[in-house]
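We read letters as residues; the fold follows as tokens. Both lines appear below.
***
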Amino acid sequence: MVSIEKKQKKSLFYKLGTGLLITSLSLWLIPVITPFTPLPTQIKAGIITGSIIIAEIMFWIGALLVGKEVASKFKSYLNPKNWRRKVKGQKHGE
């Protein structure tokens, strides 16, 4: 029974961490959209700064919950250098 509870708790933390990683990614859209709003410049600056800080905090908390390997894999997906890399053994056009 104890191992089942442990596994369920781990999966809950894993799901929470994954959710934080995805939410932090979506928060990075706020600084892109904010300059095009009719808000005053000071408010825009505060919104952009706050969203970047919150997104980073959420990313690192999520990384702690899911583990180093998953977080580094997630981060590598976001790196534009890795977008055109082919998977080992994959033929052209697959």
